[in-house]
Amino acid sequence: MNFLNFILSDVKKYSEVVSKVVNIDVEVMDSSFVRIAGTGNLEEKVGLSMRKESHIYHQVLKYKKTIIILNPRKDPHCSNCPNKSLCKEELEISTPIIYQDEVIGVIGLICFEKNKKYDFFIKKDLYIQFLEQIAEFISYKVYVYFSSLQLKRDNEILNSIIDRVQDIIILTNRKNQIELINKKGLNVLGKIDKNEKIILKNSSSFLN
After folding, report:
1. Is residue 207 in a domain?
2. 114 in the same domain as 139
3. Calpha distance 196→176 (Å, rounded)
4. Which of 43, 42, 39 has its CA nearest to residue 22?
5. pLDDT (tens digit, 9 = 90+) per residue, 161-175?
6. Which residue in 37, 143, 162, 193 is a FRET match for 49, CA 20 to 30 A apart?
């Protein structure tokens, strides 16, 4: 499952934020080796497969760790890259996006200009830490998305169960506002504003 596609708009937004902060092009690849976000020179390649051009990303997926390439083509990580002779990169920082202990994508800083590379070196450690934090935040957004889906399913199951009960069931919050009412309750009491406060009394009080 390509988890990142469920929060694609967020992924694109965070990519743009990173690019503006670091002043280097950013791209995000999903677990199917498809570039799902890109800035600058990489924007026109969004939607294309990266399987044949993502030598470093293959390693990131395998080892689940950030790989820092400060000297492309000369770095040991590049030794077996089939595209080494065609590479125009000046810098590459690739960080895994991990969800439930699985790498669901990679976010990378790709620099093509020497002057930007020199600017990057001034705050290198800070920028790498920032990139890793963004990767963690993207993972958190995936968690939030699927948690909300699970909560919705749980509520639907709960509603289905209480609707089968023949007694009136009303669940309220601490402010005595209705959170949930079953079909029997709606049939007897009619339409109720859920923001309306209700007062619950023991049935014996009606006999006094």
Report:
1. no
2. yes
3. 8
4. 39
5. 877 877 888 778 887
6. 143
